[in-house]
Amino acid sequence: MVKSLNLCEKLIWVSRQNVRPGVWMAVNSPSDSGLIEQAKPAMKISIIVATDQENGIGKDGGLPWRNKADLGHFSLTTKGNGNNAVVMGRTTWQSLPNPPLADRTNLVLSTTMQEGKGCRVVRSVEEAIAVAEGLSVEELWVIGGRKTYEAFEATERVDKYVVTKIDGVHDCDVWYRPDMQDFWMQSWHKIEGGDVIEWVRAE
Ligand SMILES: NC(=O)c1ccc[n+]([C@@H]2O[C@H](COP(=O)([O-])OP(=O)(O)OC[C@H]3O[C@@H](n4cnc5c(N)ncnc54)[C@H](OP(=O)(O)O)[C@@H]3O)[C@@H](O)[C@H]2O)c1
Q1: Residue 41 — very low, low, confident or very high, per pLDDT cuts 50/70/90?
Q2: If you average pLDDT over every residue of the chain, what do you get?
Q3: Nearest alpha carbon, ligand 1 atom 34
Q4: Whole-angstrom distance, CA of residue 73 vs CA of residue 90
């Protein structure tokens, strides 16, 4: 059915399929009718974070609280269909009790680390995105900490936030306030000890 459309109709069709400009530029090439069927949805980039009621996220290089329900939610959400990657800063990587995180490609942002067991070290946000796209990752989850969240926010490529608001105010030394300016709340559900809220980019 797609092959019977003229070029203009194809461009409209492709632009509705959530593909990035780089992909639908290819439709303009002489062999556009073949390429259009290879166009795949763009990789999603999502931020997942747990903050207390005052936006605290970390303490002494680790998490300020123990919340099993949130760890379970984090694991399920970031694994997705089994074709996802997580990207984290060096400090967060060094805080993991059993690295790498299973069933996900682990990318670590660092300018100082040479390599790490079970992870791929990337030197910039752009490199992280390129590596994940090269691996045909479905969803790239940005899992912190603050420096890493803010570096990804600066690219304006973030599609979604999944925020756990942990009950109470905890003793923290790192804070992060997600930048929700262009996002609207899509869903909310309760877990033990907190609330999980999902925000998506407003069209
Ligand atoms: N509550 C939560 O959901 C949550 C989630 C994750 C982490 N945390 C907590 O957050 C705290 C750590 O946060 P953080 O902000 O201090 O550290 P971080 O983001 O985990 O790591 C910072 C390091 O990552 C590298 N990095 C960050 N941005 C980079 C960029 N654009 N390009 C190249 N390298 C980059 C640098 O490593 P080099 O110095 O090697 O260059 C930097 O020193 C910990 O307490 C952790 O437990 C909380």
Answers
A1: confident
A2: 87
A3: 110
A4: 23
pTM, entire model: 0.86
CATH code, domain carrying 130: 3.40.430.10
Q: How far is the CA of 192 from the centre of ligand 1 (A)?
A: 26
Q: What is the C-alpha to C-alpha distance for residues 146 and 113, in angstroms, rounded to an integer? A: 18
Q: What is the DSSP letter of 114?
A: -
Phi and psi, residue 25, nearest 5°: -60, -35
Q: Is residue 128 over pLDDT 50?
A: yes
Place of tokens 């194809």: 10
Structural domain boundaries enclosing 169:
44-201
Residues with CB under 6 A from ligand 1: 49-50, 57-58, 61-63, 88-92, 95, 109-113, 123-125, 143-148, 151, 174
My answer on whether 120 and 185 are in the same domain is yes
Closest to 151 measured CA to CA, from 203, 119, 108, 200 = 108
Do 172 and 80 lie in one domain? The reply is yes
Residues 109 and 57 in one domain: yes
Same domain, 85 and 66: yes
Give yes or no for a contact between 122 and 108, defined as CB atoms under 8 angstroms apart. yes
Sign of torsion, CA 140 16 200 149? positive
Q: Please tell me whether residues 129 and 183 are part of one structural domain.
A: yes
Cα 160 to ligand 1 centre (Å): 19
